[in-house]
Design a protein that fits this description.
Elements (H helix, E strand, L loop, with lengths): L3 E5 L11 H6 L1 H14 L3 H7 L2 H5 L1 H21 L7 E4 L3 H8 L5 H21 L2 E7 L3 H11 L5 E8 L2 E7 H13 L4 E4 L12 H13 L9 E2 L6 E2 L2 H11 L6 H10 L4 E4 L4
Parallel strand pairs: 1-2, 1-9, 2-7
Antiparallel strand pairs: 3-5, 3-6, 4-5, 7-8
Helix pairs in contact: 2-5, 5-6, 5-7, 6-7, 7-10, 8-9, 10-11
Amino acid sequence: MTRTAFLFPGQGSQSVGMGRDLVDALPDAKARFDQADELLGFPLSATMADGPDDALKATEMAQPALFLHAFALFEALRAAGAPLPDAVAGHSLGEYTALVAAGALPFEAGLRLVRRRGEEMARAGEIEPGAMAAVVGLTPEALHKVLDQAVDAGIVQAANFNAPGQIVVSGSVAGVERAMVLAKEAGAKLVKALVVSGAFHSPLMRHAQLGLAEALDAAPFSDAEIPVYTNVTAAPETDGETLRGLLLDQLTSPVRWTELIERMTADGITRFVEIGPG
């Protein structure tokens, strides 16, 4: 029997023009985009459609844009007859879309939360500037040895376990730069600095936790209708209060995406559908 998971992408997937074909083709999608503009108090949909690119890349803009686009696609699939999936997951920001799709959070509350999250993360990056880098070709064990040495230069930790052999590190500029040098010496096939506004999923996001905690506390969470495999635990969760707390932990914890997908597979998921730009 086919068991399906819907996956929702995170920041970095955005591109100018995203959603334009959806809005042109489906009145319900246009209504959802119009609702988002009204709720936020600015024309998010116009920035998504026409840019400029720098504006859409800004953390506080990219996050609600990706959330809106992915959820509108999810609704379009459901309206076309797609059944509710057996499970959902989202990469970092995408976890918010997954929660709304699973019925744990209303769309309106989710949109406001991702806008606040983006604002708080951008602000944290200004308070404590940081860096991120992708490392390809090292095992988690080998990378952990690198990070154990690199912390002498500054804060640095694994931030995203994206795929076997592809891990992103995050932390202070000095810590990440030292980790990049050591990773190359350890035999990494590729080490590449990422263009980001802060050290996401590292202790440097602690400043973002303060503002987001207030917003999360006020949000109307309920138990999910289907399992949500979370970034922090890589395990299925349905309890609304647990999901609320994990969103706060997520800011400073690694995204355990590889382990999450492996757990889904072990739990019998056989089909994975990514719902987002492209």
